[in-house]
Amino acid sequence: MSKDVNATRRKFLGQAAALTGLSVAPGVFLVDLAHGKPADEPVSAKNRWGMLIDTNKCAKDCNACVTACQQENGWGSNEVNSRPDQQAQWIRKVNLKHKATGATYSLPMLCQHCETPPCADVCPTGASFRRADGIVLVDKHICIGCRYCMMACPYKARSFIHEVLQDQSVNAPRGKGTVESCTLCVHRVDRDGENAVPACAEACNEEGHAAFVFGDLNDPDSRLSQTLKKFGSRQIRADLGLNPGIHYKGI
Prior knowledge:
By secondary structure, the protein is of the alpha+beta class. Helices cover 30% and strands 16% of the residues. It folds into two domains: 1-34; 42-249, Alpha-Beta Plaits (2-Layer Sandwich). A hairpin with a 6-residue loop joins strand 2 (91-97) and strand 3 (104-110). Helix 3 (64-73) crosses helix 7.
């Protein structure tokens, strides 16, 4: 092989290697895009977004929060070919009964946006991650559909997409073979900040129940922090030490 051919081959391999090295970068870049913030407005640990749900105000026969989440993020209605047990559930209503007293509770169950999320711990690609502001998300660009995160989640709050989807919402890009869950309407949070109201909370307010309080757990003056300070709350499976961002009152 001539020296010229060797030189050309080395040049080509060098360029290919450079491109291969760059192939890792899009994964990182796509995670940044999933963060939903412009480059000059990075997500900050100054905030920790969370929510208080008052089960005393949550009507047992009301599913307004579920319907609103479906409409806002485009899940459920477009999965016409999936079996009922395979359809997405970003939020669902759960009825509980106290074994000792017989008291019953109705509450929305969704991703709890843990401080130490087990879904992110077991994800082999980093697709499941926690933003600096506490919102737990899935980067669909690098999710390989292994579903380890679904097995690790103690709240059964994640869904797997089994079929090709049509008519998706621009608020929540989705894809067959990936996992998804509640995002706390991150597109609203990134747009409105402390004035954001997730779709579930907005619908609950419109129904007159006002069971949801959304806000910044790190801000002692936020309505959420003030309400938690005044009334207290409970975290589901607090014994696991995950410190969820979702709090409940009345259970």
